[in-house]
Structures are given as structure tokens and as C-alpha cells.
Amino acid sequence: MKKLIKTIILSTSILSFSACSDFLDQTSPSEQTHPAVFESVYYAELAVNKLYGEMTRDQTYSQYIPIIWGTNTDCELIDGLGADATNTSNERGNMNYNANPGWANIASLWNYMYGIIENANLAIEGVDNSALAKTEGSDGRAMQRFKAEALTIRAMIYFDLIRFFGDIPMKMESSKPDLSNAYLEKTDRDVIMEHLITDLEAAIEVLPWAYESSNYTTERVTKGYAHALLANIALTRGGWAIREKAKDGYITATENSDPTYPTQRCDDATRKAMYELALTHLSPIITGNTHDINPSVENHWYLINQSKLDQTYRENIFEIPMGLGVSSELGYTIGVRINGASAQYGDKGNSSGKQKMTAPFFWSFKPNDLRRDITCSQLQLKETSGVLKEEMLGNTPFAIYCGKWDIRKMSEEWRSAAKAAGNNKYMTGINVVRMRYPQVLLMYAEVMNELAGPDGGYTGSAGITARKALETVHARAYDEANKSIAENYISAIPANKEDFFNAIVNENAWELAGEGFRKFDLIRWNLLSKKIEEFKANYISQLNEYPDKIYFNYEDAAKTIIDMSSVTWFEKPADPAKYADSKAYYGAELTATTKTQLLTNLPSISSGLNSTVKNRYLMPIASTTISASNGKMQNSYSYSN
């Protein structure tokens, strides 16, 4: 097996180390017998390292999951609309909810994810059967930590599979030679989630906090991530989900529920218990001294693009370690676009970006919110006649690039390597973040609001109210000169659960858009359909408000860098002659001859979500997977087999 060698290089910055995800030495211990592997700390760690290595594949977390499978929502879209939105041979149709069991990527993701589960099962069993793991001292403790890592990774993989497919086979033991456990039927997702919660409770007891041990950075699962993952699972267990059939004792939604495949959640008592469980695990992260919010949202995303671990604030609670030139399409398949070859960034350029943002989402930000222009990039880079320029996009209301990943902010090491790669795609190596501290604060705000309202206290809390947790996230997005805008916004939210919950839903979009999380929060809130319909209605109503042209200036005499602070996003200026350039904007659709955005693209967005079965956001199980299941599995939700 290919060997990846980790090299940790101290940065000149006090804030960060290089986030080398070559982190994982995946030398295979195949020359050892399986029992012998787990009588050695060295070889046992290699077995666990392999789990991280398998998460760097395109079919898992290098591309599929962080970029594609988290779309579509009210603010995030897969590229390719109109006729492309029904093309079920690629992501364009499938992520517009026109899913097809024959799409090959479904089987690929399923197979690789269950491959990680199989290897996690082997690691867990290896430690359980290890004499070394039962000894006192550092070696025994190390072995138990390895088991806890495997339990946590397995929980993360199962949780993602549940969010993609619903009920799935639960296999918590390694495959037997006689294949007696090779063919399994689906298990109810609630049963699986309850098992994962139990596993995570055990893992939390053993795992260290990030940096409590020199071997455990935020590039490994730690106590903080296990706490946060458990809380997320608990909230999902207590939330809404489309079901293969109605469950007795469950509450059926009055909106967006199919008569055959109803959207349901558990009873009120269980739901409250799940919220209390989530609170129990969110509070230690907030009261602890390990993770905090980086006071600069700009610096946070700069460090991510630089592939540097933030050791001051540790806002990223867990980030899957990737490898420069080896894995991660963040900044390539998603991010600020460079359109074609350039002397500065190499011959390849990058793709058009599979994930896009929407105009109503851009307009939902307050002008002083720093997250707006970080999240929504309305420009591309293009070299013409040897000059690299920033170009405005124009009337592209459903094709705004996600600017969180920005090649202009990436490391010199990446740029040099990309140039040397010629016309070949060069993987960015940017880590895939699976949990950030702001997510913890938003989940905490949601839980506290549900249990105690916006301003109440509750047993087991972190000593702050829901309102204070929300304020921490929102205020970070404003510079010091505009903090009062954020504070006034938070204080003006009415002191009732419904209005405050709506504010949390909005903050979730502003903070997390493009990162692959919002879709699954909207699902458990039963807001996915509603929010998509709302975004479409907002676009139509805002057409009369959007300028038909925007005007802007440049920062340099050569007109290569746009002065983003000069852009007239919201109204036509009194004197357009004072601006150096202009571009058609969203309002131009009103006078366009074809009205492609309004009449063709808009209706195609998420067109399959309610077309056959209401609220059918789950993917089908692949036809090849079903045919190989020995008759144990069938598709549901009116998908063919």
C-alpha cells in the first residue's frame, strides 16, 4: 500500500502549524497476522491511520461529501440547471432531487463508506481482543484511545450514510469468512443512531481533548469532536425524517409529508430527552478551554486556505487531514474560479465550481457582515493577453461562486506545485472541516431555546443563554466599528421561541453555507422544501429591486483588482460616470428577451424534491448494491431497484 509520510513543519506564525495531512502513515501491517497487529502500539496506530487515509478519497470526503452531497438547499445549488437538472447520469440531476439508482457515484460512495466501517470494525475488535490493551500503563491507554477513535470515525460514517440514504444495514462486526453476516437487511435509522450514541459515550471517556496529547491535534478525532458529533446525532434523532412507512407513536408533520412515505419525528418526551442529551455534550465544549471562536472570520478562512492549523483558537474541532497534490478538491471544484490558464496559477486553472450560491442568499446579508463577500464570490479570475484580471460575473443569480476557498489566499507551496503540474489537475490538500465551534454554539442556542427560551437557564447548561450563544456567532462577523449593528440585531430578536428559532435558522445559513451542513439541518427541522420555495419566491419578488446594472471601481490603475467596497449592489448610483466599469446585474432579467434565469433555470432548481414523492430528499440505494444484496434490500420512496 502506498505510504504517506507525515511531516509537521512549524510555521513562522505563532498561531499555526502546517496542516500536513500527509499526516497518515498508512504503511500496511499486512505482513503481520491480525492478532499481532493489536499487540503492538505502532501497528495498531497504523490500522487506525488507515481509516483517516480512506477519508481522503474522492468518493468520500475529498470531493463527494463536502462539495456535492450537501446540495441543494435554499442557498446552495449544484451547477447545471435547465435541462441539466434532470440529467440523472451525473450530480446535476441527482442533487436536484431527480435521483437515479443507476448513477454510478451512489454505489461508489456506499462501497467506500462501508469499507471504512469494515476497517473500523476490525480495529475495534482488534483492541477488544488485545492483551496489550488490557494492561496498565501508557501502552494500554494508547490502545484504548485507538479504539475510541475507531468508534468515533465509525459513528461519523454511519451518521452520514443515514443522512444520505435513511434506513441502511447496520454492521457492527467484521465480515466472517463464511459470509454469514455479509447480506444484511436495513435497520431502522433510529436504532442505529441510538447505538452510535452509546458508542460515542464510551469513546468520550477515553479520548483526549485536542492538543492535550501531542499526537492529538484537530486533524484527529478527539473528545471535543465526539461530544459535538453525539449532540448532532441526538438532535437528528429528535428531528424530522421521511420514513419508509409510518411508525407507531411518532408525530406526522402537517407540512411536506407524503401520504405513503410520511415525514415524522419521535414523540415529545423522546424529543426533549434528545435535546437534553445534546445539551449535556455541547456544554463541556463551551465551558472547556480547548476550542473557541476565532475573533476574525477573515483570518479563520485564511488559515484554512493556507492549510495551517489554528492552535490559538482551535475553531475547527475536527478537520479531515488531506494531502497537497494527493487529495481535496476544496478550492478546485468549489471556490473562487480561475477561468483557464495563467502564469500565476498554472495551466490548468480550475473548474467552474460544482456548488454555487444564490442571489437571494447574497441579498439576505447585512452589508457590513464580513461573511457575505467571503461566502459569495461574484467574480472570477481570467488571464487575457498575459494579464490576470478580476471579472464581475453579471446576471448569474444562481451561479455565485463560494468564496470560502480562494486560490488567492492559498499557500505559495500550493501555487508553485500547481504551476509545475502543467495542464493536470492538482489537488489542493486543504483539510475538510467536519465540525466548527460556531456549529456548537448554534446547536447550543437551538437546544437552549427549545428547553428554556431565548433568555432562560437550564440544568446542565454552559452558563450562557441561547441569545448569548447566537450573539457570539453573529457578532464575530462584524468588525469593531460595526459591532453595535450585530448587538442591536441580536437584542431586537423577540423573546419567544418561534422568532428566536427563525433567527437561528438564518444564522445557520450565513455562517455555514457552502460547507455541506445546512441541508441536513433543514431536513431535521422539516424546512428543506419550505426554504427552497421561499428562496424561489424571494428571487421573483426581488427582481424589481435588483439593479439591472452594477457599477464599480478598481484598486489599481491597470484595472485588474476590483474594489469590492465600491460596488453598487443595491441601487443605481446618481452619477454612473464616477465609476470605472459596469456589468449587467440580476435586474436585467426583467428586460431580457429569453428570460432564461426566470423561466428556465429557476423552475429546474430542486425540481425533483416534491415531484414524485413529497420531501424525497434521500438518495436511492444503487441498483448494483441492491442486485448484490442477495435479496435482502429493496429501494423505497418510489425509487426503482
Question: Descriptors for this entry?
Answer:
40% helix, 9% strand, 641 residues, alpha+beta, three-stranded antiparallel sheet, single chain, disordered N terminus, 22 helices, four-stranded antiparallel sheet
Compute the number of helices: 22
Largest sheet: 4 strands, antiparallel
Percentage of residues in DSSP E strands:
5-15%
Q: Strand tally, please? A: 17
Q: If you average the pLDDT, what whole number results? A: 93
Q: Give the CA-based shape.
A: globular
User: Spatial order of the strands in the main sheet?
Assistant: 2-9-13-10
Structural class: alpha+beta
The helical percent reads 25-40%
Q: From the alpha-carbon coordinates, what is the Rg to the nearest angstrom?
A: 24 Å
Point out poorly predicted stretches.
1-31
Distance between the termini: 35 Å
What does this structure look like?
By secondary structure, this protein is an alpha+beta fold. The protein is 40% helix and 9% strand. The protein is built from 22 helices and 17 strands. The strands form 6 sheets. Strands 2-9-13-10 form a 4-stranded antiparallel beta sheet. A 3-stranded antiparallel beta sheet has the order 3-5-4, with no helix packed on it. Strands 8-11-12 form a 3-stranded mixed beta sheet, with no helix packed on it. It is globular and about 80 Å long.
